[in-house]
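note to self: dont lose this again. the chain is below, predicted strucutre after it. 96 aa total, dont forget to put it in the shared folder this time
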Amino acid sequence: MTGRLPKFTSAAEIVRRRDGNPRGGLTAAGREFWAALFDRDKLPGPFCDEADAIVQLLLAEGRIERSVAAMDDSTAEAVGDRIVRFAEELRQAGLL
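---
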């Protein structure tokens, strides 16, 4: 797949390296995830819905950096887990 969709994988890899810190790398992963959405027209509907939900969490405070800083540990971990799960589902669907 060409375009920015591989950035979803990049975002997931950044989250996987968080070393026990729920916020570790989440800002960088969020930026990669956001950049990948410029090719959202290549995603089937259900994937667009989940991507939009993740982005809403990442932009809850207006900017990704502020949003991540404002998250408690459990929210940051949950958002990171959703990014990883999203990339895995794209791969399983043959979109990455």
